């Protein structure tokens, strides 16, 4: 494949620092691979002196394979790796027999939980909510290290600073006590090694005289510090990235580091790869119209190599149910136009946004695969409660269903009143035969189940909520557990809205069973199969598809409801830009007018598409 002018200029760059701004679909992988070949053949650099770093093992292997197809055996000896892999290798080389035992993610979360208990930071939460909280704290701990900051100077986004500092110190103490390190420690230990041992640093500087960094926009401060030390004194540092695609702030990545590169290296060459070989002109222009609203970025004039193509379509729909049906029907139309399932992707901000869509695709028998797992909403205790009520209404007498809802709402019925594999209301009455006041409660429960029997699922849930008193139970449950009632009602509303599609309880329960089976098939996703790809915007980074649907283009979804600061909003806009630029030929963005019975507004990013 021939190179365009900008690519050829980057490939042939000789010595010293160089920053290549590579827009979406601009052929950066080819450029890096050809650059390595040029160094070896034209400038006679020994392959062993070249280090190529990227952020994932997959990307490193892909880059290595792409290069070997070009250079063949001549390229043997070039080192390809991730930041963590390279730095870990340096530490093992320097410390020899010292055993660096890495904490697994689950072990790290457990240490954080223990640290919370030690400092008296107790929170009464549901299991899923506690897990999310622990992950949030793990991100904050990682941020302190990735930015190379002292804990005293760090200000967490959503946690009181003093409280977080206490947790951080306790976590660090417990971690070192058990002789373990986390991923961020590897970076800090490598930086510390080079700062203290200039003789060891010199060994590695002489080994890797030419350093190439892919996806440079994803670099954090400590990684950058170590790379700068490694590249000195020759500073043959060739970095490729796009500040508009910097979307990993939770890992310490900041687009400001790319801008700082030119300040740190005033003599650095700057090259813009401005031709997009992936997307049509309308997709390129529309995505630029959004990202140009960010202030912290390099200005870029990008152009599409292809023609104008279809205009970007923005679709307003009533609610998530209508949105999912719209997407399913549009997928059907693309199939008629000979687009394969595997060339279609549906992107969303968080995996929770995919729940309704995944149900609808199952119903339409459209094969799909999910890159990230989502929790089956019917496995939530609210879903299990409703299923048990429906089973009882249909005459199922299994003990588990009685136990599930006997006291939701409170009826003061004990487990000892429900023994054996099958239960009847009469056996419960017999148990409480000496308590006249309990008879009325049991009679009412049985009467309510008879009232439910012939209702539609939607109407039955409404009866459970208002007549049986389930809404009041949820409010009391939330208050007792110290959790947000709004989150519980959001789950309940979502289930009720999805039930509207089914005429009978039997049909709804059959759907739940089929949906559960479909989700189980996603446990080990095979992204090579001919299936529609469902993934978060983060998960779509680096991928491309003929057709892309971006769903839930609403305020509170994208930008995410927790994004408040301007820097956070700008990162959310970059994330939306990444989602848009995954599309080659067709891009559809949809937003809902209401969600869970509440009005919803289109995202500010969607509105920016219409600004001239």
UniProtKB/TrEMBL annotation:
Residue ranges constituting the UvrD-like helicase C-terminal domain according to the UniProt record: 281-542
Xref: PANTHER family: ATP-DEPENDENT DNA HELICASE SRS2 (PTHR11070:SF2), UVRD / RECB / PCRA DNA HELICASE FAMILY MEMBER (PTHR11070)
UvrD-like helicase ATP-binding domain sequence ranges: 1-280
Family note: Belongs to the helicase family. UvrD subfamily.
Class of enzymatic activity (EC top level): isomerase
Keyword 4Fe-4S: no
Source species taxonomy: Bacteria, Bacillati, Bacillota, Clostridia, Lachnospirales
GO molecular-function terms, A-Z: 3'-5' DNA helicase activity; ATP binding; DNA binding; hydrolase activity
GO biological process, one term: recombinational repair
Name of this protein: DNA 3'-5' helicase
Entries under PROSITE patterns matching the protein: UVRD_HELICASE_ATP_BIND, UVRD_HELICASE_CTER
UniProt EC number: 5.6.2.4
Keyword field: ATP-binding, DNA-binding, Helicase, Hydrolase, Isomerase, Nucleotide-binding
Organism: Merdimonas faecis
InterPro entries: DExx_box_DNA_helicase_dom_sf, DNA_helicase_UvrD-like_C, DNA_helicase_UvrD/REP, P-loop_NTPase, UvrD-like_ATP-bd
Reaction catalyzed: Couples ATP hydrolysis with the unwinding of duplex DNA by translocating in the 3'-5' direction; ATP + H2O = ADP + phosphate + H(+)
Positions with a binding annotation for ATP: 22-29
Pfam families (alphabetical): UvrD-helicase (PF00580), UvrD_C (PF13361)
């Amino acid at each position: 494949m021939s190179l365009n002018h900008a690519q050829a200029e980057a490939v042939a760059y000789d010595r010293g620092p160089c920053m290549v701004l590579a827009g979406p679909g601009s052929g950066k992988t080819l450029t890096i691979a050809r650059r390595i070949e040029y160094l070896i053949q034209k400038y006679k650099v020994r392959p062993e002196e070249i280090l190529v770093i990227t952020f994932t093992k997959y990307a490193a292997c892909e880059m290595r394979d792409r290069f070997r197809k070009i250079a063949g055996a001549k390229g043997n000896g070039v080192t390809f790796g991730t930041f963590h892999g390279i730095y870990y290798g340096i530490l093992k080389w320097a410390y020899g027999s010292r055993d660096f035992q890495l904490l697994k993610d689950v072990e790290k979360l457990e240490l954080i939980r223990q640290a919370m208990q030690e400092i008296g930071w107790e929170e009464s939460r549901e299991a899923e909510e506690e897990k999310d909280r622990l992950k949030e704290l793990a991100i904050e701990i990682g941020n302190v290290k990735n930015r190379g900051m002292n804990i005293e100077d760090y200000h967490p986004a959503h946690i009181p600073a003093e409280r977080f500092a206490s947790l951080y110190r306790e976590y660090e103490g417990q971690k070192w006590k058990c002789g373990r390190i986390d991923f961020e420690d590897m970076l800090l230990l490598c930086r510390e090694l080079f700062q203290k041992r200039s003789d060891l640093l010199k060994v590695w500087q002489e080994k890797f005289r030419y350093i190439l960094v892919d996806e440079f926009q994803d670099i954090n401060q400590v990684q950058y510090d170590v790379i700068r030390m490694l590249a000195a004194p020759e500073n043959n540092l060739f970095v490729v990235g796009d500040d508009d695609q910097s979307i990993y702030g939770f890992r310490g990545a900041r687009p400001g580091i790319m801008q700082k590169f030119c300040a740190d290296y005033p003599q650095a060459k700057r090259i813009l790869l401005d031709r997009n070989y992936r997307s049509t002109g309308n997709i390129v222009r529309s995505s630029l119209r959004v990202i140009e609203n960010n202030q912290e970025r390099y200005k870029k004039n990008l152009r599409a190599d292809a023609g104008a193509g279809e205009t970007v379509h923005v679709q307003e729909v009533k609610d998530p149910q209508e949105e999912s049906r719209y997407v399913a029907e549009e997928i059907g139309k693309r199939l008629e136009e000979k687009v394969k399932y595997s060339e279609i992707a549906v992107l969303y901000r968080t995996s929770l946004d995919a729940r309704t869509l995944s149900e609808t695709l199952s119903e339409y028998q459209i094969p799909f695969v999910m890159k990230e797992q989502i929790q089956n909403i019917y496995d939530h205790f609210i879903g299990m409660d409703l299923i048990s009520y429906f089973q009882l209404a249909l005459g199922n007498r299994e003990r588990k269903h009685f136990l599930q809802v006997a006291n939701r709402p409170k009826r003061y019925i004990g487990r000892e009143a429900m023994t054996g594999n099958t239960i009847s209301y009469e056996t419960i009455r017999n148990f409480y035969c000496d308590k006249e006041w309990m008879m009325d409660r049991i009679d009412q429960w049985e009467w309510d189940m008879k009232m439910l029997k012939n209702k539609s699922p939607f109407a039955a849930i409404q009866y459970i909520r208002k007549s049986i008193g389930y809404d009041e139970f949820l409010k009391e449950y939330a208050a007792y557990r110290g959790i947000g009632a709004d989150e519980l009602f959001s789950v309940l509303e979502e289930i009720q809205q999805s039930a509207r599609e089914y005429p009978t309880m039997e049909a709804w329960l059959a759907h739940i069973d089929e949906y559960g089976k479909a989700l189980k098939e996603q446990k080990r996703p095979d992204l090579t199969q001919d299936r529609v790809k469902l993934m978060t915007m983060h998960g779509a980074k680096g991928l491309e598809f003929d057709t892309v649907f971006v769903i839930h283009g609403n305020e509170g979804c994208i930008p995410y409801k927790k994004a408040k600061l301007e820097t956070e909003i700008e990162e959310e806009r970059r994330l939306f830009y990444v989602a848009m630029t995954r599309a080659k030929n067709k891009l559809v963005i949809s937003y809902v007018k209401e969600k869970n019975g509440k009005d919803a507004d289109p995202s500010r990013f969607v509105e920016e598409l219409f600004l001239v």
